[in-house]
Amino acid sequence: MDDGKEIGSIVKHLSKTSDEVYAKVCEVLEVDESEKTVDVKPIDGTSEIFNVRLQAESEAGGLVLIPKVGSVVLVVFLNKNNAAVVNTSAITGCKLKIGNCELLMDADGFLLRKENETLKKLMGDLIQAIKAMSFLVSTTGTAAAQTGATNTLNNSAQFTAIETRINQFLK
Asked: pTM for the complete prediction?
């Protein structure tokens, strides 16, 4: 027996299926972001394929690229019932989740989250603390001829708390 055929036979036996792994270039017809699937039409004119996975395991996190409707994707078939998108020509979004850290990105911007903290919330709180800055000032002299010094930032505890949050959020 030819070595190539023998190896193929062994692989099929180990996977307990006679299905071949193959790929098709397809056009994206519809995207279901919540289910992390797409419906596609192969460019070779064969039948539409529904519920093609964008991610191997949809609940575990990882990376998901959301393809643009009308874009071209490469779909790999593991067997007759299981296919996944492995490459895209254009995307509308990207979702990355590693542990308790998450990055969401689309044309409107991006969201960076760690647990319940977001970069937007941190920056907003920092800006509010800057706007609320006030200082203790000591003065001497008369109303017409005063001299003085700025001594203490009154809301320094607010800046310390924000610094702690930033250090916990970023590496």
From this structure: 0.75
